[in-house]
Specification:
By secondary structure, this protein is mostly helical. It contains 37 helices and no strands. Among the domains are: about 230 residues, no CATH class; about 45 residues, no CATH class; about 40 residues, no CATH class. It is globular, with a radius of gyration of 33 Å. Belongs to the STRIP family.
Length: about 850
């Protein structure tokens, strides 16, 4: 253990006879290294969080291993048609003009009525989008030609033609009805849809990714494509809404043959492309704050999280037992060492200063979770009821003795701990917190309050003045608070302030399109997430998400069964990855666009049981999930189309790749934790749901994953519920509490760790949610309803002008107006005396 200016090795070097031996420096280092290695259950994960994985990985996840034979089928259909056109030449040998002419020929062939011919042409186009891999020697060449061909296909208008074919396939009632009647659905039922969605995904993902050697026309094409996807050009709605419709149709069991993995991947990448990723979101947030004249952000959250270091996980039960036994042996040894030192037999000075304990606990980043839940006397003096620091009886407690510093050659640089110069996050204070602090102070010292006045400090003592000054220095006004305040003003003064100018951003157009069926979209996504979660048990009424991975003929050998098992697990992991990233993007972009758009999506998620669903997801061996090897490298695209396929064996399937973690699974876990944070932040009733569902032990197990970003969001979730978990939980989890202090942002007057003033109304769930719902409905009514000013519109009381208004009638009314008069006017008795009666 180390502080800023001293190193303290553990003194535990006694032989069997009780004689003290002075250790050599190398032995001390070896013992320390062995102890630190044994305390780590998992290695540090070199994981860099981002919008997506590498382009190669994202392209390979589009295809299931069961689809592997279709690569050759695409090539054969292309070469069959291309041979008659190019006469012995290869695609990569053609000039750009010749390539454009051939693509135009394929585009014309897409419009034929014969379904089989259309499918062959679509497969030829897919082969072009896949990079004409039969003419390439390396994976780099495949990606190069894929990029070249995709920009060519987009320039020739292929995407619009594919969209029309996709709409036809979605509305194909014959295919839907036959799929509903089938007892078992396989790859063959979704062939056309899979080919179309694969081409569209390759186009969206490839055009979305920017590279240094992009041509100017490609950069312009990217912006045009982005605007087209975001704007309501496709049947009056953004392209993402068509995909959302496919999701809801699949989950309602009306189209069980839809290839859901491909739909979700395309939907996620479309949202990512049109709305922007996390770094673009941060830039948009900075610009938005500038427009609202708010002070700049105190730090870049993305950079801060990337610079964080992971902490060691909590010890397991077996480790705790072993550590307690070692402590008992070590305690006797250290007492003997202390007695020997007092007798003058020790090289150490007789008067030994104690290392101050709180500095060790606060800054020991090497192992802040070590011995969590254990009564570790050496590291947790805070756990005692007295809580007194200072001199301790050396025979009752373990003594940490300061030795003379060892010589420099014996101190390896790897063992030094870099202590933080400061906290990673700047503290924040809300306006509401300052008001609450002043209200409490005025009640205490003056006896009355001044409402929301945060400027008047008359009658308050000097320390309160200093406190308010400090609070105001760290005051943070969020964009959401400004939007809520503006919305209240617009609700109170609709005529004075007039109509709000709403900018037609991509997020605004998407929200406007999603609003009528928002709850259906959210429920459908959560149903799919539940079906794909590894903790879900198969039920007869659950959704079958394996329609686009199961082959027509089930495996008959053990090797085929193993391959299909890996494929199914991989398939589920990719679905979880796509849904978690999609939901997080929607929440973050809607929150930036308007807080009430974020709140309505959040409330739909909460009412659809998203919180217990995510907790159920984490209620598993999370280390096994993150280190799962559900991939077969030799079958991944583009490796499988460039290299010769080796013979697959059971050993090669079990081996998987050599990485220590699965990128997509760790990415999914972090996304789900971030979603849970978004849903519960500043929501007392939802925080109580975390407590009721006993999330603390589930979340604490997730700390075993040594990845800084994941640990940060777990600690945030533990922080907001700490005050409700009881004093005993806090006492036995002091290392977790220390980690929260180190890694999570501080709110200066937040008593999260003490629970002195527990929010009253712990079960006032309905009132809080209903008040929020009312605010959301008022916002939607004011901003999106057509007759939103109907109550304030002037009424025309003149009979002549009312009767003189021209009313547009349908064309067929002229032919049937006599029947209408007879039915609606003459045959209806009119009781004129009813007008004279009081209602």
């Amino acid at each position: 253990m180390q502080t800023e200016d001293m190193e303290v090795p553990i003194i535990n070097n006694l032989n069997d006879n009780g004689d003290r031996q002075r250790p050599k420096g190398k032995d001390v280092f070896k013992d320390q290294q062995k102890e630190s290695e044994s305390s780590m259950e998992s290695p540090n994960l070199e994981f860099e969080y981002g919008d997506t994985d590498t382009l190669t990985a994202e392209l390979s996840e589009l295809y299931s291993y069961t689809e592997e034979p279709e690569f050759a089928l695409n090539r054969d259909y292309f070469e069959e048609d291309f041979r008659s056109h190019a006469r012995g030449r290869r695609w990569i040998e053609l000039t750009v003009e010749e390539q454009r002419a051939y693509v135009m020929r394929l585009l014309d062939a897409l419009e034929v009525t014969d379904r089989d011919k259309r499918l062959k042409v679509a497969r030829a186009i897919l082969y072009l989008a896949q990079g004409v891999f039969d003419e390439c020697d390396t994976e780099v060449d495949v990606l190069h030609w894929s990029r070249h061909n995709i920009f060519l296909l987009y320039d020739m208008g292929i995407f619009t033609a594919l969209l029309e074919l996709l709409s036809m396939e979605i509305d194909n009632s014959q295919a839907c009805s036959s799929a509903v009647r089938k007892p078992a659905i396989s790859l063959a039922d979704s062939t056309e849809l899979r080919v179309l969605l694969s081409i569209m995904y390759l186009m969206v993902e490839t055009i979305r990714v920017q590279t240094e050697d992009d041509r100017p026309e490609w950069i312009a094409a990217r912006e045009t494509f982005k605007n087209e996807l975001a704007s309501p050009l496709y049947n009056g709605e953004p392209f993402a809404l068509l995909l959302f419709t496919m999701v809801t149709k699949f989950c309602s069991m009306n189209a069980p043959h839809f290839p859901m993995k491909k739909v979700l991947l395309l939907l996620w990448k479309t949202i990512l492309f049109t709305l922007g990723g996390f770094e673009e979101l941060q830039e948009m947030k900075v610009r938005h704050r500038e427009r609202l004249n708010l002070p700049p952000l105190p730090e870049d959250s993305i950079k801060v999280v990337r610079a964080m270091r992971a902490a060691s996980p909590p010890a397991s039960a077996m480790e705790l037992i072993e550590q307690q036994q070692q402590q008992k042996r070590g305690r006797r040894s250290r007492r003997s060492a202390f007695v020997d030192s007092l007798e003058g037999d020790s090289p150490f000075p007789k008067k030994q200063p104690l290392v101050k304990q709180d500095s060790l606990d606060t800054y020991n980043e090497r192992d802040p979770f070590k011995n969590d839940d254990a009564r570790d006397e050496e590291e947790d003096p805070e756990d005692t009821d007295s809580g007194i620091e200072g001199e301790v009886d050396p025979l009752d407690r373990d003594v940490i003795i300061q030795p003379p510093p060892p010589p420099p050659p014996l101190r390896p640089p790897t063992e030094r701990v870099n202590f933080p110069k400061g906290l990673p996050w700047a503290p924040k204070v809300r306006e509401k917190d300052i008001e609450h602090f002043l209200e409490t102070s005025r009640n205490k010292f003056i006896g009355f309050t001044l409402g929301n006045d945060t400027e008047t400090l008359v009658g308050l003592p000097r320390p309160i003045h200093e406190s308010v000054k400090t609070l105001k220095q760290h005051k943070y006004m969020s964009i959401a608070e400004v939007q809520i305040k503006r919305e209240e003003e617009l609700q109170q003064c609709p005529l004075t302030l007039g109509e709000e100018e709403v900018e037609d951003t991509a997020a605004e157009m998407l929200y406007l399109g999603m609003l009528p069926n928002l709850s259906q979209y959210v429920i459908a996504l959560l149903k799919l997430l539940l079906a794909a979660a590894p903790t879900s048990k198969a039920k007869t009424d659950s959704i079958n998400i394996l329609a686009d991975v199961l082959p027509e003929e089930m495996p008959i050998t053990v090797l085929q069964s193993m391959k299909l098992g890996i494929d199914v697990n991989r398939h589920k992991e990719i679905i979880v990855k796509a849904i978690s990233a999609l939901l997080l993007l929607l929440l973050k972009h809607f929150k930036l666009n308007h807080i009430y758009q974020f709140e309505i999506v959040s409330q739909h998620l909460v009412f659809a049981n998203c919180i217990p669903l995510i907790l159920k997801f984490f209620n598993q061996n999370i280390m096994s999930y993150i280190s799962a090897k559900n991939s077969i490298c030799v079958l991944d695209f583009p490796h499988c189309v460039v290299h010769e396929m080796p013979e697959l064996t059971a050993e090669s399937l079990e081996a998987g790749d050599s990485s220590q973690f699965c990128w997509r699974n760790l990415f999914s876990c972090i996304n789900l934790l971030r979603i849970l944070n978004k849903l519960t932040k500043w929501k007392h009733s939802r925080t109580m749901m975390l407590v009721v569902f006993k999330s603390a032990p589930i979340l604490k197990r997730a700390l075993k994953v040594k990845q800084a970003m994941m640990q940060l969001y777990v600690l945030k979730l533990l922080k907001i519920q700490t005050k409700y978990l009881g004093r005993q939980w806090r006492k036995s989890n002091m290392k977790t509490m220390s980690a929260i202090y180190q890694k999570v942002r501080h709110r200066l007057n937040d008593d999260w760790a003490y629970g002195n003033d527990i929010d009253a109304r712990p079960w006032d769930f309905q009132a809080e949610e209903c008040a929020l719902r009312e605010s959301i409905e008022k916002f939607n009514s004011r901003r999106y309803e057509r007759n939103r000013n109907g109550d304030f519109a002037p009424v025309d009381n003149c009979l002549q002008s009312v009767l003189g208004q021209r009313v547009e009638l349908p064309e067929d009314f002229h032919y049937s107006y006599e029947m209408w008069l007879e039915r609606e006017v003459f045959s209806q008795p009119i009781q004129w005396e009813g007008l004279l009666q009081n209602p």
